[in-house]
Amino acid sequence: MEVLLTVIIAIGLALDICAIGLSSGATIQKDRTLIITRIAFLVALFHALMLICGWSFGFFISEYIGDKTKYVAAALLILIGANMVREAISEKEEQTFLSLHTWSGQIILAFATSIDALAIGVSYGVVHNNVLLLALITIPIILIATATAFWLGGKINEIFGKRANIWGGVVLILIGIFFLL
To answer: Residue 133 and residue 110: Cα distance in Å, rounded?
Structure first.
């Protein structure tokens, strides 16, 4: 039963990155394979780190951070989304700090999408569930879901062009706003 529950939790965590990957994958034009692979590994790594950190600190983290994590995730997603819209509208080929073509943008995206994993880790720590099992099941699911979603997002861009980039940014902004509700 614990394995089934863990798989369901891992799939739930992966759904966030799937929505973001489908909308953000459209912005990755150059070096797609390299960037998508790097993002997938960063997202999986950050999820694992957040699961373990959450589990390790249990009550301590939940007392000090509590429900404020959603505000951090929302702000980061709104910033990345707004940057995507700005890049799509702009005629220049510039890469900003938040661009998914840069390490900083990829790390921020990985962090923003893994904050939920921190809360899951805390809950696992509180009830003394096996965080190693959770991490071992979650990491491959997150890795595959991220790579697939970003790849599919790029295919959507091939069909819809610049409009896909704008809608992708709008979707990230809306996901960020949803976190605030």
So the answer is: 21
